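Key idea: predict the complex, not the pieces.
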Amino acid sequence: MATKNIEIVVAPPAPHMVGDGFRVHNFIPSGYHLDMQRMNPFIMMDYNSKYYFPPTNNPRGVSVHPHRGFETVTIAYKGKVAHHDSAGNSGVIGEGDVQWMTAASGILHKEYHEEGFSKTGGEFQMVQLWVNLPAKDKISKPKYQGITHQEINTFQLPDNGGLVEVIAGQYKDVKGTASTFTPIHLQNARLNKGGIADFSFPGNYSTALLVVEGSIKVNNTETVASDHFVLFQNDGESFVIEALENAIVLVLSGEPINEPIAAHGPFVMNSRAELMQAFEDFNTGKFGYLDE
Amino acid sequence: MNFSKETGLSNFRSYLQTKAQVTDEQFAVLAEKLKVEQIQKGNVLLRQGEVCKHSFFVEKGLLRSFTIDNTGKEHIIQFASEHWFITDRSSTFFHEPSDLYIDAIEDSCIVFLDQDFINLASDISTSFRQYNEKLLQNHIRHLQKRINLLLGATAEQRYLDFIKLYPDLTLRVPQWMIASYLGVTPESLSRVRKELARKNFKSI
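Result:
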């Protein structure tokens, strides 16, 4: 199988606040070479690199807001987030947990630091990813997969190299825990120093890495530091990563959805008319209601 | 916000070309009368009592005009998002001290138009003069409708009219500002939205 080579390594862009609870580096779509069409089906990635939030009695976060036309995937590395949505789901995700929310036809939700975490304060580190839906599923029923760290299927790497958590898709013979609408691989490689993991995905898939912790070497050549994002060429299938110190690497690869993208704020549809409809449906209560 | 003055000016030229058929040659003459500024969120462009010398064209961002009553409460008169004009006409046209405040709700790129610009553009371009008059008539039409809604419509009718005029503002401004524009309390706006959701949720 041909080697999948690196296209570019992107340093974390200057952070900005989302609400008052998430201090994020936006890689997709505003990063260099990382627009929605290029990264499709991954249409947004905000990365809250490790950041200390001091104690507070008023949980920080993002108040009620809508989504339509895609899925939001939140992967918690440090800290805890509580969330509520207009479909009646609520819960807390903590270290290692994943929240996979299919907004589809429309949902309102809010996300705050969990109360206990807010009171003690602490290090906070998360990824939020938006995964595009194909046109036929954009207006399907919203659904929710809350996946605890223990529920995520894992593959043990040989030679005490660490493990790969298969959130979605497949790694070797281990299938992902989450269900997806289009072929998507989303995995956390938790590697011990010197640990090696090899990956293989179809050449045409949009494929990338985010180094969440530690530093790694990719394909025995390129060294990539913490908080950096690696975009692979849509060519070749296999690549290998090696941990230069204990490392956590988020691996994402997905089949591009070859449809037009019309995006405005929290709505990602196929046409401008559908965006206008999304605003009207949101404004007239068709996404439901959620108290602030 | 990375939106340069040159971009602001060139976008305003395309706007005038499309809407008022102002040619490149005409715009070249007019451009020296124009000023483009980046206005940061929270900055005030006009204070009550000042004489307003400009109309403001929003290239990018969001402005609002409002008054403050004797009890200190704000009343929002107008929002102006991309490609809206906003000013205090009693001040720009009649040179009276302004009743209004105008400030930026988002980081904005604003084109400043003074009376000289309007006069010169009207002199050299008939289509601009016609367009400008249409804008004025349209503005009066909106104000008339707004007075009528404020006098006689329910909070729900006012809200439904608001979202037609400003479809994306519910995601850009806090609830209390929308309530202020509608002349209702934030609690009653929240009741309206809850009631709409009760009627319309799951009807997709």
